[in-house]
Design goal:
heterodimer, A: about 500 residues, alpha/beta, 5-stranded parallel beta sheet, B: about 270 residues, 7-stranded mixed beta sheet
Chain lengths: ~500, ~270
Amino acid sequence: MAINPEFLKEERNKEWRIQLRQEIKNKERVSRERIKMPEQEPDVRNRNSKEVNLGLSEEQAVKEARRCIDCPDPTCITGCPVEINIPKFIKYIEAGDFLSSAKVLKETNSLPAVCGRVCPQEVQCEIACFYEKKMNKPAVAIGHLERFAADYERDSGKMFVPETAEKNNIKVGIIGSGPGGLTAAGDLAKYGYDVTVFEALHELGGVLKYGIPEFRLPNNVVDVEIDNLRKMGVKFITNFIVGKTASIDDLKKEGFVSFFVGSGAGLPRFMNIPGENYVGIFSANEYLTRINLMNAAKPDFDTPVLYGKNVAVIGGGNTAMDSVRTAKRLGAERAMIIYRRTFEEMPARIEERKHAQEEGIEFLNLNSPVEYYADKNGRVNRMRVQKMELGEPDSSGRRRPVPIEGSEYYIDVDLVVVSVGVSPNPLIPKSVPELKITKWDTIEVNPENMQSSIPEIFAGGDIVRGGATVILAMGDGRKAAAGMHEYIQMRLKKK
Amino acid sequence: MYRIVDKESFSENVVKLEINAPRIAKKRKAGHFVIVKTGDKGERIPLTIAQADPVKGTITLVIQKVGVSSHKISRLNVGDTLTDIAGPLGQATHIENVGTVLCAGGGVGIAPLLPIVEAMKKEGNKVITVLAARSKELIILEDEMRLYSDEIIIMTDDGSYGKKGLVTEGMEEVIKKIKIDQVIAIGPAIMMKYASLLTRKYNIPTLVSLNSIMVDGTGMCGACRVSVGGETKFVCVDGPEFNAHEVDFDELLSRLAAYKEEESIAYQNYLKTK
């Protein structure tokens, strides 16, 4: 489904693009400094739940857009899992036509305001930018610009609803309303299908709602994107657990011909060390769900959450960063990351780690918990930790942490969040016994079109990858939608 | 959506609600539970399904007022709707003809026991049922239970109905009298703990249905984890029923009390506003 280079060339040779390129010399463009995203001050933001990044002003966005030299061979696009026409959207910003810019984003990305916030651009489009590749200079701030255009459109009240093909009345089911499901839903609606999204929880958005905190991705941003899908004709049903409330077979009998499974990585992993079930020890999923989805920290909501003075978060991924920064915002005096490797190997985005450090998060790298202890009520009050050193690289290519003998010590903690990864949600695989799964319990698919061992079932995101990112799930959703479209059309022809 | 079509008050603190939920009614089996939430700011709480009518498209839940959320649900009337119900969740009870089954229900635990008593009887078992509660008005669903039980023993703490004494005393009386092949005990965690200790003494296979704290109910959060046979299990997806003799009840009791203080403060504040 690679983007057609001829089409890109044709677009690039349009009069307005040529004119823009001629207005400023490349030499001048590349001499400019990359824009810095305005942020809330660290010691202010670590006490509120408002967004850390404030977004670019129109002036800042245009200025940054001018850095892009509109390459003849835009390598940035190949770095994008959903292949946004990056130079085109950036050049519309340079031209001051922000609504057209947003429209370009939406051609291939149903959730640009989300991606502009949570995508790891530094290892995708931006690392493939001419500036990075050839000039050893910071890339054009593609992510910041994407967010700008999407936010501008939302705030303008003139949201563009992508055109949809004539309704074909063929029913397709999307299981899970996370990033993969929403993307597949948007694309299938564009092809003209009658799309229904089934969500197990009472709220739509999946990990975008229960997982990623408000200070990184406000819920309102997600809701607006979902509303836009509604306008395209997508139907949403909450409290519907496919495999429980109805099986895939039941839905087939109700007329659904093909499915996209984007049920996510629903099963939190623990370390299975002594004391891990004491009160006050949460999985990151539980801790974040209570706060983000259930609003447990707001006094007028019924769901409770425990607060800690000394909070330890185990792990070094983005979810660990989200958890520890949340704990800090909820009043922790000491909020610590306990990670068994070093910054070098840490999977969290550099931006998240940097933000965490600025906010006063302590990083206890090369440390690993061994045992937890509790008070007479069973509430955790202390943990035993072991120091580690790095040995030979393991199968993941990262250097393996090796315990240092005799290095164990104690840390006082009253809240622990375990964020050492998730396993795929077994609900769907269990309810469709014929479905082929891998040894990691993920659904086996053909990577070309995301089709599973059952021809009408496609899958993507964490249920296939085990634990990845929002944008990779979206890329899968997009690929799967194209695969489903092809599969359904072929079936129709055969009849 | 989830409209209440019938309501019955068993006592001041216990109500039975029959709720319109056709898909769940069709799929539900004995042992299944649902997650219920009321109001936009409500909490997600697990409730085991007491009865279901697939033709009418309804499920029946029995709720005891113990805190804010259960109080809010109990106050709903016929015609009102519950904001959210998701299910049916958990593994269904394994129903098999084993011979003679002793079913013990304590307090509102009697409600989730009913479909199991019914299924066990229909499978051909001889079913002896012990119903226990603090006092007479807390003994619920007695008529329905009689329908599917070969024998019923009622126990109350205060002796206001049936025999005076604890559930375990009623159970032991039966166990001493006839050979029991399987015990199923459902009720407060502390009751299940003592029921389990009793049947372990007599070496009778025993199932309990655990009522741990949950958030999503689909395996996503791990709030409900409990040690069974030395391994961590999730009540929502691995349970809710487990081999009683392998359950770490003390851990369960401590985890159930995790929010005791917060809940009690919230409940006091809530009652003040009503």
